[in-house]
Specification:
- By secondary structure, the protein is α/β, with parallel strands linked by helices.
- The protein contains 17 helices and 19 strands.
- The chain has a nine-stranded mixed β-sheet, with helices on both faces. The chain has a six-stranded mixed β-sheet with strand order 12-11-13-14-10-15. A two-stranded antiparallel ribbon has the order 7-16.
- Helix 1 packs across helix 2 and helix 12 crosses helix 13.
């Protein structure tokens, strides 16, 4: 009687049949972070009785402002396990099983996914999203994908042969900057921030090579004199480092331009070498920053110099103890070093300095996560889940959360797109691959193309029914040794040549693809890949501009700032309707984080963004 009373409002809202389907369904939630916490809470309050949740992350202090199933006492503990315990307090009768694990391991393969009625993604990285997408397509289990970026959000229903999958549309390419610009001629704050991160890695990381080390050498007596002065300072490492990167290296750069007749600074003032003594002796007038939070204050040159010495001293002590560092936006000493280093370099090159808060956002490539955005998107996931469980797949919608209201509404919806016939995951399974088979070796083929770009975990390669390479568990020592020999060979040597058809597969994803090889010298040291079905007798069809996906995207709890993708996205203009209880809307479905103006209710305009790639999750 108590249970019926608890669920009375759900039965009344959903109806007896749908409520029964909800209670009998088995749900997998992938991710227990920003969206995942809200989603798990919603599920246990919406009648779901059998839930499993997986996340490989642990709870960090920075999670607590939006992941409300966690408290300060939980810092360092498993997200999935704590989320389970907290959610059970809302409804102790629900069966929740948690996994503190990586969804990409062999324990969570096709057989694991077949057990579920529905999979709900609450992930924060491209790699895992693609993996879950492929498994759900392979075993024909509906998937609801989601993501947030600041005030923007999106929910997408994916069903094999019915809707487009997560990989039917191209993904964004991370913004890159020229090495020479970063090292020699920065013009923007981001150039100096990237330099600061690289300097952190070079000085305090576990690396042998120093990417940004100046390679210019000279017999000029002035440069030699400065280098001799620098040599006398080695006993005090932080001061030596300051003088090296902000005075000696800059002096050399300017001097080399002068004696070499280079017109490097023709269009802008040359950089100003800065010694520690001069920096500490400055006392520039600054505008009042009263009432501004400490990390949002812009430090002057003297304060940045002091911060540089302080952070470099602390990081050097860590390194001497064997504790090498990598940049982590939540590691205060790392953040302070990058803040000070990038600001001093900005001053030297005449670029405005920034606050620690601004540098943290840019250095971590993040857009601050908004708790209310996560809550809205988690709610819409459950709404779409109800439709799927009610057998109304045709009524599911791609739902967008906009930053600014349009006609008084923030939620916009569109019809789900049909599968892309050229998608190599759910479409043709053909890929046209252009590369130089004489230069590429099998190791690069496996690591850069099959794993890095296509996103396989454990690929196997077959040419003309002959097994060329095999990866996965259960290989004996002889097979492993044979694989290592094969990896050193060029593609020509293993019969991956022009016009060849290569069969590649990944049992962990139940994914099988055919690669049509086109010999080409058009991309030296690189390759061009497209998921188009080749026409008969034509092995080198025209393909769109290359769209590569980073092999690995750093995982954290915020959202990476996505840049526009290389190549023009496909545009489909349609009418768009505001989300309603019975939406019948279409929309202009643009590419990822690429905006488009579309008609709204026959006259108004609204900007719609497709948000995919690395979005808010754990």
């Amino acid at each position: 009687m108590e249970l019926e009373g608890r669920n009375g409002h759900l039965i009344q809202s959903l109806g007896d049949d749908l409520f029964k389907n909800v209670q009998q369904s088995k749900i997998l939630v992938v991710g227990a972070g920003g969206i995942g916490c809200e989603l798990l809470k919603n599920l246990v309050l919406s009648g779901f009785q059998d839930i499993e949740i997986i996340d490989m992350d642990t709870i960090d202090l920075s999670n607590l402002n939006r992941q409300f199933l966690f408290q300060r006492k939980h810092i360092g503990m498993s997200k999935s396990q704590v989320a389970r315990e907290s959610a059970l307090r809302f409804n102790p009768r629900v069966n929740i099983k948690s996994y503190h694990a990586n969804i990409k391991t062999s324990d969570f393969g096709p057989d694991f996914f077949r057990r579920f009625t529905l999979v709900l993604n609450a992930l924060d990285n491209l790699d895992a999203r693609r993996h879950v997408n492929r498994l759900c397509i392979a075993v024909d289990v509906p998937l609801i994908e989601s993501g947030t970026a600041g005030y923007l959000g999106q929910v997408q229903v994916i069903k094999r042969n019915v809707t487009e999958c997560y990989e039917c549309q191209p993904k964004p390419v991370a913004k890159t900057y020229a090495y020479c610009t970063i090292r020699s001629a920065p013009t923007k704050s981001i150039h100096c921030i990237i330099w600061g991160k690289e300097e952190l890695k070079a000085q305090f990381g576990d690396v042998e090579d120093q990417t940004l080390e100046d390679e210019e050498v000279s017999d000029d007596p002035e440069i030699k004199r400065q280098e001799d002065i620098l040599e006398t300072m080695k006993s005090d490492y932080p001061k030596w480092l300051f003088h090296k990167v902000f005075y000696t290296d800059i002096f050399r750069k300017v001097r080399m331009g002068e004696i070499g007749g280079k017109k490097i600074w023709e269009d802008r003032p040359p950089p100003i070498p800065m010694s520690l003594e001069v920096a500490l002796g400055t006392n520039p007038a600054v505008e009042s920053q009263e009432g501004i939070l400490e990390e949002q204050k812009v430090l002057n040159l003297k304060q940045n110099a002091e911060l540089f010495i302080k952070s470099a001293t602390a990081l050097q002590e860590r390194k001497l103890k064997g504790n090498f560092v990598e940049f982590d936006k939540d590691d205060l000493e790392c953040l302070q070093f990058v803040t000070a280093a990038s600001n001093i370099r900005s001053w030297i090159f005449g670029i405005p300095m920034l606050s620690q808060f601004e540098i943290k956002s840019q250095a971590g490539n993040i857009i601050p996560a908004i708790a209310t955005t996560n809550a809205i998107i988690a709610g819409m996931i459950v709404v779409e889940a109800f439709k799927v469980l009610d057998g109304r797949l045709q009524d599911t919608r791609m739902t967008y959360l906009a930053q600014k209201p349009s006609a008084g509404r923030l939620l916009l919806s569109s019809q789900n797109e049909k599968p892309n016939k050229n998608c190599y995951v759910c479409g043709s399974n053909f890929i046209v691959l252009k590369l130089n088979t004489l230069e590429f070796n099998l190791k690069d083929f496996v690591e850069k193309i099959l794993i890095g770009t296509i996103g396989m975990n454990a690929p196997s390669v077959v040419v003309s029914d002959a097994l060329i390479y095999e990866c996965g568990e259960g290989l004996d020592s002889e097979e492993i040794a044979q694989n290592q020999k094969q990896l050193k060979k060029t593609l020509q040597e293993v019969r991956i040549v022009d016009n060849a058809t290569v069969d590649v597969s990944d049992d962990s994803q139940e994914l099988k693809l055919k690669l049509v090889i086109v010999q080409s010298t058009e991309f030296p040291g690189n390759f061009n890949i497209a998921g188009e079905v080749p026409k008969p007798q034509v092995l080198a069809p025209k393909v769109p501009a290359k769209t590569e996906v980073p092999a690995k995207i750093e995982e954290d709890d915020d959202v990476q700032m996505l840049e526009s993708i290389e190549g023009e996205p496909k545009k489909r203009k349609r009418d768009l309707e505001i989300l309603s209880p019975d939406p019948k809307a279409n929309e202009d479905d643009q590419s990822l984080l690429v905006s488009s103006n579309v008609d709204l209710l026959g006259g108004n305009k609204v900007e719609v963004l497709r948000l995919e790639g690395r979005l808010e999750g754990p």
